[in-house]
Hints:
Elements lengths: L4 H6 L5 E4 L11 E4 L3 E5 L12 E5 L5 E3 L5 E11 L2 E7 L1 H4 L3 E3 L11 E10 L3 E3 L4 E9 L24 H5 L4
Antiparallel strand pairs: 1-6, 2-11, 3-4, 3-6, 5-10, 6-9, 7-11, 8-9
Amino acid sequence: MILSGLEIAARLGKDIVIEPYNERALGPNSYNLRLADELLVYENNELDMKTPNATRKISIPAEGLLLQPGTLYLGRTVEYTQTRNLVPMLEGRSSVGRLGLFVHVTAGFGDVGFSGFWTLEIHCIHPIRVYAGVEMCQIYYHTIEGNYIEYSSDKYQHNQGIQPSLLYRDFANDNS
């Protein structure tokens, strides 16, 4: 089951932490999260899953930043979230998608117990100007049935900023 907006608000400080929290961002069954003021882009056109890939930071100025097709931008939410006893999910907002801007297309499934900022995978189909602080995506919560183990990976848990892929760590731990 997906929690209603009123249930999200009722669980704040218990199963759900959203900091900073703004009541106006609460919807009927989700909460809108904002884009922070910087992005990461990979420096190389060819990426390798088995190695760390170099990135560079781009600041989003007050007049906005024009994103270009063919580039993957990594952003993060302004809001820090923590979730207990629920599965957090992230989706792009439909108003953003209708402009041809895709946010968090492949990695919206969170883990029960996740604490941190959400890294957003962003790409566009035509040039589009984005602004820091825009409500870019929405978080919603599913209940979970049965016993579970909370997320505790050292890859992304308790992050403080934009996280590029750390998939290469999986190869280092592969004993096959």
